[in-house]
Structures are given as structure tokens and as C-alpha cells.
Amino acid sequence: MGVIGIDLIKDGWFMEKGALWPGQAMSLEVAEILHHGRTKFQDLLVFRSKAYGNVLVLDGVIQCTERDEYAYQEMIAHLPLFCHPNPERVLVIGGGDGGVLREVLKHSSVKKAVLCEIDEGVIEASKKYFPAMSCSFQDERVELKIMDGAVYMKDHQDEYDIIITDSSDPIGPAEVLFEKPFYESMYRSLRDGGIVATQGECMWLHLNLITPLMASCREIYSTVEYAFTSIPTYPSGQIGVLMCAKQGCNLKEPCRSPSDEMQESFQYYNSEIHTSSFVLPEFAKRALRV
């Protein structure tokens, strides 16, 4: 059984203490507990915070808040999509809150977007408490699959231009999403010229996880890079995006730019930040050999 999120609320404050970031914690003042229960896979808590709006917590770990979710959703979606000349078919694995899907659908070239989420409870909670993200489920281009993403990909090979894995941390049901066989499955599901983007953990905390994973990916993909975005409610205020291209591709430079209208819909991503997100501090460059 995972961490019981509601037990982490004391004296009106939620405190996130994760096994993957020992010795530090993140606290948010709680205005109201909106939902608490257990899905088929994990503990799920939603509360309204005083500073960050509604907050989704899985097994005691913050997944998204209304105030800063775009910093992650936009980057993990638009980094790969703007590196592809004509992304038509997109697979999102995880991402049951709908935020990544919302950003994917801003690209007019996308004809079909499949969301493959193993935990239906996350989707239902998002529909109720995170309407600005879950609005994406209503788009006619979207197909929802409640199942294991690895199982889905076995029957869908050579099919997608972009695969985005929006996973929680590598504990519990998400653990397999950080292992080499999963990246091999994504490779087989990509079309020629396809690109993968996955939640890449925090360079301040998880180089011991990121370094071997990138080494494994280099055995599979032609190009492997690590970018990052800043987001206040994730551990150390930073989260990475691991990007892999099936064929040689300069992932650090977008090959397309957003229209003026599209750019107006963004709160974080632009072409300049695309390029700068791959510029790493020296300690990370040495560890990741980029």
C-alpha cells in the first residue's frame, strides 16, 4: 500500500516527504480537502491550497497544481512536437490529468492523440477538480485507453510520430517506465523520424537514476538529450525531460515555431526557452556526458 496522503496534512499544512528526496520536504498550506480515496493502484488526494489552487497528490507525492502545472505540461509536450516537422499521431502514456494532452492538441497537424492511462481514478478526479486540464478529453481527435502503456504499444508498432510518457516517480506502478525494455517498446512504436519525451526526474536529486537510463537509451536511439524546466512544487523546483529521437535529429533546436496565436496560449514555452532548456550546469553535464 502506498503513502496515505491525508495523513501528511498536519496543522493545516500538507507536507510531501518522498523516499527519492531524503532530507527535504515541500509544504503547502491547505484551504480545503476536496477528495481522498484509494484507486485500484494508489492513494489519491485532492486539496485546495491557499497559494497554488487545487493540488493532485498520488501516494503522498504532488503531481500537479493549478498554479504551476503549465511549466511542466508545456515543456514535455512542445519540446518534442516542435522538433518534428509534421506530427500527426501522438501517444501519451500516463498523463491522466489531461494537461499534456491539452498542449498536444494545440498543434493543428495532430490528427489523432491517444491517452493511455492505467489508473482511471486519476482521469475521473481530473475531470472533477482540474477542468483546465481535463477539457482536452472532449476533443474529437482524442482516444482514451485505460490500460498499461507497455501492453498497448505491443499491438501498435511503427505508428506514432511522438510518444510522451508523463509518469509519476519510479516507485510502484510507474517503476517499469524507467527501464530499458520500456524505451525499446517506445522505439518500436515510433514511425521513422519519431521522437520520445519522458518525465526525466530532477538533476539535483536523481543523477544516479538519470545517468544509467540515458546510457541505456543511447544503445537504442540515434539522439538522446536531457532538458529541464523550473516548477516550484516539484522537488528542488526542477524537473527534467528526457528526449530521444529514432533517427538523427537536433532536439535542441525547434524545426517549427508557434504562430502568434498559438504563442498567446502558452505561459511558459517559447522557441528561446526550447533551446536554453538543454543548457545544463557543469555538474549535470559531466554526469550525463552531454
UniProtKB/TrEMBL annotation:
Q: What is this protein called?
A: Putrescine aminopropyltransferase (Spermidine synthase)
Supply the InterPro entries for this chain.
Answer: PABS (IPR030374), PABS_CS (IPR030373), SAM-dependent_MTases_sf (IPR029063), Spermi_synthase (IPR001045), Spermi_synthase_euk (IPR030668), Spermidine_synt_N (IPR035246), Spermidine_synt_N_sf (IPR037163)
Gene Ontology biological process: spermidine biosynthetic process
Specify the species. Chondrus crispus (Carrageen Irish moss)
Q: Where is the PABS domain?
A: 11-246
Q: Give GO terms: molecular function aspect only.
A: spermidine synthase activity
Give the family per the record: Belongs to the spermidine/spermine synthase family.
Q: Does the keyword Transferase apply?
A: yes
CDD domains hit by this protein: AdoMet_MTases
Keywords (alphabetical) are: Polyamine biosynthesis, Transferase
User: Transferase as a keyword?
Assistant: yes
One matching Pfam family is Spermine_synth
Which PROSITE patterns does the entry link to?
PABS_1, PABS_2
Q: Which GO terms describe its cellular component?
A: cytosol
**Source domain of life:** Eukaryota
**SUPFAM superfamilies per record:** S-adenosyl-L-methionine-dependent methyltransferases
Per the Swiss-Prot or TrEMBL record, the active site comprises D166 (proton acceptor)
